[in-house]
């Protein structure tokens, strides 16, 4: 089961990377706006990103507590009272009991900024301003 969870996490990361690269190409072709979470982020976007990070930390903390208490990781509804998902962010959490992974992606951002984590508790932030593949 852990292999399945890891495979899903890797697949999800690759899918987001491909989506970000396509978004960057699309912005270059269309002249669309800049990434919302780059060095020039606005105060409201920074606040939404900080709320998303706080939610991610809360999920990891609740999952760690659930695993300590029950020996199993939980689905989102089973975690109970979580901070709200920030406006414009999409939250997906997958759990098979033996592990979990989740993503928080900003649907307002042309670059599709995302935060990811799993049962190991490390938060990953995809920074679309850094190239993922050398060209």
Task: Summarize it.
This protein has 135 residues and is of the alpha+beta class.
What's the topology here?
Blueprint: H1 2-30, H2 43-70, H3 76-79, E1 89-95, E2 100-106, E3 114-118, E4 124-126
Antiparallel strand pairs: 1-2, 2-3, 3-4
Describe the structure.
It is a single chain. With 135 residues, the chain is of the alpha+beta class. The chain has one domain (2-126). The chain is 45% helix and 16% strand. The chain is built from three helices and four strands; from the N terminus they run H-H-H-E-E-E-E. It has helices spanning 2-30, 43-70, 76-79, and strands at 89-95, 100-106, 114-118, 124-126. A four-stranded antiparallel beta sheet has the order 1-2-3-4, sandwiched between helices. The protein is elongated and about 45 Å long. The termini are far apart.
State the total count of DSSP E strands.
Answer: 4
Main-sheet strand order equals: 1-2-3-4
CA-based gyration radius: 16 Å
* Largest beta-sheet characterization: 4 strands, antiparallel
Distance between the termini: 36 Å
DSSP helix fraction: 40-55%
* Shape call: elongated
Structural classification: alpha+beta
The figure for the number of domains is 1
Number of helices: 3
| Poorly predicted spans | 26-31
Identify the quaternary structure here: single chain
Estimate the strand proportion.
15-25%
What number is the mean pLDDT?
A: 81
């Amino acid at each position: 089961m852990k292999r399945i969870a890891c495979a899903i996490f890797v697949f999800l990361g690759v899918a987001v990377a491909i989506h970000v690269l396509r978004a960057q190409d699309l912005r270059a072709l269309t002249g669309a706006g800049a990434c919302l979470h780059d060095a020039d982020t606005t105060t409201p976007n920074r606040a939404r990103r900080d709320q998303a990070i706080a939610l991610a930390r809360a999920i990891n903390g609740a999952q760690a507590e659930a695993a300590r208490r029950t020996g199993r990781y939980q689905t989102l509804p089973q975690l109970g009272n979580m901070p709200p998902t920030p406006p414009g962010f999409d939250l997906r959490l997958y759990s098979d009991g033996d592990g979990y992974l989740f993503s928080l992606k900003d649907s307002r951002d042309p670059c599709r900024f995302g935060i990811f984590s799993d049962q190991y508790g490390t938060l990953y932030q995809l920074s679309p301003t850094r190239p993922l593949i050398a060209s």
